[in-house]
Write a structure and sequence with these properties.
hydrolase activity, 224 residues, 5 helices, single chain, alpha/beta, globular, AB_hydrolase_fold, Xaa-Pro-like_dom, hydrolase, 8 strands, Alpha/beta hydrolase
């Protein structure tokens, strides 16, 4: 998988990129946890999600937000990191102009950034939000949420308590035109200690079902 450096809003961004063998294959971007708490693109869950998409022949990218690894810039409390994610999607779309669809998967802090990116980019047709933190971050911008997706978390998560995630899920369930699939992993904490394989298995099953035309309502084509 090629190491790449591309231009972001605050300087260069470091990533890992694997193109599909198909010209018009969908794109997947994977976003890592909080930069101030050890989050990088080499986080195991981020790494495993990257390969999950790659195995299904997506054109796949994971990258370090500003200030992490070889990525330039300073931590910007989510504002700049959202700009980094948008720049990453711009970069990969410029290389693959025939790709019509995109998925975004984010873990923890990355889930918050991914859901904001979803609101700004109509070509994103599916998302995976792993252990989102609505107790810490404001998700009220999802009004309405434009795409169907998966929210997956553990019932032993003390960083993002299940009751707070449930409030977010219940709110999204009231919206028409999308299907939100929720998976709760018994005994799993925020870091999915000893549960990473099950997490990826559930994400893989969800993706396969979506690719088979399940778990999402038909929706009108949104324009970029």
């Amino acid at each position: 998988m090629p190491e790449v450096i591309f231009t972001g809003p605050a300087g260069r961004l470091e990533g890992r990129y694997q193109p599909s063998t198909e010209k018009n294959a969908p794109i997947a971007i994977v976003l890592h946890p909080h930069p101030r708490f050890g989050g990088t693109m080499n986080n195991k869950i981020v790494y495993d999600l990257f390969y999950m998409f790659q195995k299904r022949n997506f054109t796949t990218l994971r990258f370090n937000f500003r200030s992490i690894g070889r990525s330039q810039g300073n931590f910007d409390h989510g504002v700049g990191e959202l700009s980094d994610a948008a720049a990453a999607l711009d970069w990969i779309q410029a290389l693959h102009p025939d790709s019509q669809h995109c998925w975004v998967a984010g873990y923890s802090f990355g889930a918050w950034i991914g859901m904001q990116l979803l609101m700004r980019r109509p070509e994103i047709e599916g998302f995976m939000s792993i252990a989102p933190q609505p107790n810490i971050y404001d998700f009220s911008f999802l009004a309405p949420c434009p795409s169907s997706g998966l929210i997956i978390h553990g019932d032993a998560d003390k960083v993002a308590p299940p009751k707070d995630v449930q409030v977010l899920v219940d709110k999204l369930h009231t919206q028409k035109g999308i299907t939100i699939t929720q998976k709760i992993l018994p005994g799993a904490n925020h870091f999915f200690s000893n549960d990473t394989d099950l997490l990826i298995e559930e994400c893989s099953d969800y993706l396969d079902r979506r690719l088979a035309g399940e778990l999402a309502e038909p929706r009108p084509k949104r324009l970029r």
